[in-house]
């Protein structure tokens, strides 16, 4: 009997990881690598979005909110 064993290279540590339902962390080789990847994404998003939202976020909120109350009130 032959299982269709698809393997991928873990993008974090370059280890061979099983890309199947048996590996809940695919395409990563382990939970650790998955968490590392998520952490990197969060850090990047914070850097990009955090800087912009600090100023643009407030301006956008005011602009977007203005028509709302006007119509409702
Ligand atoms: Zn890995």
Largest sheet: 2 strands, antiparallel
Order of helices and strands: EEHH
Tell me the radius of gyration: 22 Å
Q: Any idea of the CATH topology?
A: Erythroid Transcription Factor GATA-1, Chain A
What is the H level of CATH, i.e. the homologous superfamily?
Erythroid Transcription Factor GATA-1, subunit A
**Low-pLDDT stretches:** none
Q: Percent range for helical residues?
A: 55-70%
| C-alpha geometry | elongated
Level-2 CATH architecture? 2-Layer Sandwich
Output the CATH class name: Alpha Beta
Could you tell me how far the N terminus lies from the C terminus, measured between alpha carbons in angstroms?
Answer: 71 Å
**Treating each run of at least 4 consecutive H or I residues as one helix, how many helices?**
2
Short description:
The protein is mainly alpha-helical and 73 residues long. A two-stranded antiparallel ribbon has the order 1-2.
Description of the structure:
The protein is mainly α. It has a single domain (7-65), classed as Erythroid Transcription Factor GATA-1, Chain A. The protein has two helices and two strands. The protein has helices at residues 31-65, 67-72, and strands at residues 7-9, 16-18. Strands 1-2 form a two-stranded antiparallel sheet. A hairpin with a 6-residue loop joins strand 1 (7-9) and strand 2. The longest helix is centred in the middle third of the chain and has 35 residues, at 31-65. The N and C termini lie far apart (71 Å). The mean pLDDT is 76. The chain binds zinc ion (ZN). Zinc ion binds at residues 10, 12-13, 15, 28-30, 33.
Architecture blueprint of SSEs:
Elements: E1 7-9, E2 16-18, H1 31-65, H2 67-72
Antiparallel strand pairs: 1-2
Zinc ion binds at residues 10, 12-13, 15, 28-30, 33.
């Amino acid at each position: 009997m032959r299982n269709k064993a698809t393997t991928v290279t873990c993008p974090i540590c370059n280890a061979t990881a099983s890309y199947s339902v048996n590996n809940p962390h695919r395409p990563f080789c382990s939970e650790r690598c998955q968490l590392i990847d998520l952490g990197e994404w969060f850090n990047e998003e914070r850097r990009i979005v955090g800087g912009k939202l600090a100023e643009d976020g407030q301006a956008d909120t005011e602009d977007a909110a203005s028509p709302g109350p006007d119509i409702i009130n």
